Amino acid sequence: MIWEMKMDPQRILAASSAPSNDIFGSVILSGEVRGSLGVSFEKMRILGSYALVFLTGGCGHYQRQGFPPVSCRKGDLLVIFPEIPHAYGPGPGEFWNEVYVVFQGSVFDLWRRHGLLDPENAVIRMSGPQAFRKTLREMRGILRAADNTSSGTLIPLDAVCRLQSLLGMAVREGVSKGQDRKAPVWAEAAMEYLAARPDASLEDAARLAGLSYESFRKKFRAVCGMSPAAWRDRQAMQLACKWIYEERLPNKQIAARLGYCDEFHFSRRFHQITGQTPRSVRDAFFGKTGVHKD
To answer: Of 90, 213, 214, 275, which has the most beta carbons under 10 Å away?
Structure first.
């Protein structure tokens, strides 16, 4: 399917509510978009499933929360992970054409556990025109297989097998550039400190970095694109998403872990930072039939 339109950047927020085969996996949404708006950098998205986004034309950036943006160009393959806030798309005066596939299943969790899918290597540079043509052919083949599955002419496993073949090709042939822009050592130490301690003092983080607080605040913003306080808060919400996803914790327990006075304060803060409620994130992860503890 090809849409000649500018598409809603939040188009697949609740994609994981579709039924799936958890053991073998399933393709739950796919499409091709020309003139895509991408996903807002001001309000990053948390997707409840995996996704591949293949940039078929144009250029722009990908950013994982808490890290500098990574430039993207035609031929790049973006790997999107569950529970990780992210954004991507064109900048001013740029355009972005893409083919995307949203998928889920235990088999892909296994790939991730063994490092074949790695959030540290979310942008894969495909090597040359031949790899571009092959990747585009495979992505469109997955789209056709997914369409045929929905019409009942193929079993769901066909689309998933094609997807795993594409992922294998990307692992073998792709050269990741997603981590070329390393943060300075002091910034990495401060980020690790704040990520491990959601209620940590920013002054303590500055001392750990060997800087005055004002210098730390300015340099941190230059490296990470946000203030230390905003980064700490976003890391706390990423932990909250992780606990929702992996442990299915209710808001009350998450609030206690993060040091909030009560679950209502946590829920409000979660919405302010992510633009979503804990309930909507649970819907994205588990579907609307799941148990809600909001």
So the answer is: 90
Could you report the per-residue pLDDT of 147-163, keeping only the tens digit for each? 765 554 444 567 787 88
DSSP H helical ranges for the chain? 106-113, 128-150, 157-173, 185-196, 202-209, 213-224, 228-246, 251-258, 263-274, 278-286
Residue with tokens 């091709």: 32
Tokens 């998928």 — which residue? 103
Residue 6 identity: K
45 DSSP assignment: B
Measured CA to CA, the distance from residue 72 to residue 70 in angstroms comes to 6
The tokens of 11 are what? 């188009």
Instruction: Give the three-state DSSP class for 54.
Output: strand
pTM: 0.57
Q: Quick one: tokens of 3?
A: 């849409």
Both tokens of 76, joined, read 């790049």
**Alpha carbon of 7 to those of 4, 22, 191, 260: distances in Å?**
9, 29, 34, 37
Residues of the chain scoring pLDDT < 70: 1-24, 127, 148-157, 173-183, 224-226, 284-294
Residue 183 has a CB neighbour count (10 Å cut-off) of: 17
Instruction: Please report, for residues 50, 77, 143, 157, the alpha-carbon distance to residue 154 in angstroms, rounded to integers and kept in the order given.
Output: 22, 26, 12, 8
